[in-house]
Amino acid sequence: MSQPHLNSTKAWLVYGFAIVAYISAISQRTSFGVAGIEATERFHASAQILATFSVVQLVVYAGAQVPVGLLLDKFGPRILITCGALLMAAGQAFLAISVNVPMGLIGRVMVGMGDAMVFVSVLKLLPLWFSGSKIPVLTQLTGTFGQLGQLISIFPFHMMLLNAGWSTSFSVMSGFAFATFITTIAFVRNGNGWAGPSHGTHSSRSRIAQALKQPGTRLGFWTHFTTAFMINTFMMTWGYPFLVEGQGLDSALASGMMSIFVVVAVVLGPVLGALTARRAEHRSNYALGIIGLMLAMWAVVLCWPGQAPLWVLIVLMISVAAGGPASVIGFDFARTFNPPRVLGTATGLVNTGGFIGAFITIYVIGFILDMLNKANGSSGVLYNLGSFRIALSFQFVMAALGITFMLIERRKARRYLAEQ
Ligand SMILES: NCCCC[C@H](N)C(=O)NCC(=O)O
């Protein structure tokens, strides 16, 4: 059957506006992160309460992935992106007028829920509008373009916050999300390939079971888990204190170095996308190679006698950053092993991997740091290089777990393909 809408001008238009919604989602997600000092003043909050904001938002994001995936398979990406944009607009507007911690948390929960609907929906749009090697390349590019949202938070949003204040800046972000709500309604369509809303012939449980039965979904989950947990742990919590308190970097230099994550995503994303499209049979090897590089660099830095030189830390961050584009390979496994009717569910399941891995790692690293401090009679500084060396080594345990399951699931996936 001919499908003229695939790869058409209209397909690019739909994808372009879906990407704008995703860029907005990433900027809404990361905007609070650059507003830490202002949030502390506005909410009279401690550092711990401030950390709660990020954790709550991410727990909501990760917890929503499976329900969102199920809704996506039922209602299609257009409705989900529209609802996501509206929820983020409402959440940021609420945050703009928030004057205390509970109000602020409600705003961030709404933003987290809206954000959770966008990425998996954009991925679900791809096979509905494109065909062939364009799909894996655009899957990577989706992750790469999203990084622009982080740049919006770091530069224009942060400048506006300093000059125009809290309420104005968060209202403008709300306006941005609302604008993508309008453009999604106007331009984003599910495409002729979309079979329409399904009417409950399959229960949610059976859809999850169907997606999980595919070895590709499980391989995707463990690929996302193993490639993304280190970058999430670094970016969300322990990277900055490790660089400043452990490695003695100046705080401005340490935060500036965080932009390495954006640069690596922009450079490596398209390369990995092209490689995945050309040599799909090597996808898991690309992911395993990048994991090996990350672990090698962590081993070098953690074993370095004393503080590591700046160039070694930069190489470490480049290799950890490579985990972002590598994690997108996980979604490619979900797409190629699942039928369209459960693709949203499978993508949502895969997208929880790197976040579940990061929550466990972040928590255990904090626990080890506290234990070491207590063992020293709580007399020393909580964050020091010696303690970081021991605590951050926990990442090797998590990586070993992830690699083991990747290898197990890869064997099953290959057997499954051979039997087809
Ligand atoms: N090129 C960087 C892509 C990072 C992808 C990231 N690991 C991920 O899974 N993101 C999901 C999202 O909602 O942004």
From TrEMBL:
Task: Give the matching CDD domains.
Answer: MFS (cd06174)
- Entries under Pfam families matching the protein: MFS_1
Which stretches make up the Major facilitator superfamily (MFS) profile domain? 13-411
Write down the Gene3D superfamilies for this protein, in alphabetical order: MFS general substrate transporter like domains
The principal location of this protein is membrane
Q: Name the UniProt key words of this record, in alphabetical order.
A: Lysosome, Membrane, Transmembrane, Transmembrane helix, Transport
Annotated transmembrane regions: 12-29, 49-72, 79-99, 138-158, 170-188, 219-240, 252-274, 286-304, 310-331, 343-368, 388-408
What is said about its interaction partners and assembly? Homodimer. Interacts with lysosomal protein GLMP (via lumenal domain); the interaction starts while both proteins are still in the endoplasmic reticulum and is required for stabilization of MFSD1 in lysosomes but has no direct effect on its targeting to lysosomes or transporter activity.
Protein's recorded name: Lysosomal dipeptide transporter MFSD1
Q: What is the lineage of its organism?
A: Bacteria, Bacillati, Actinomycetota, Actinomycetes, Micrococcales
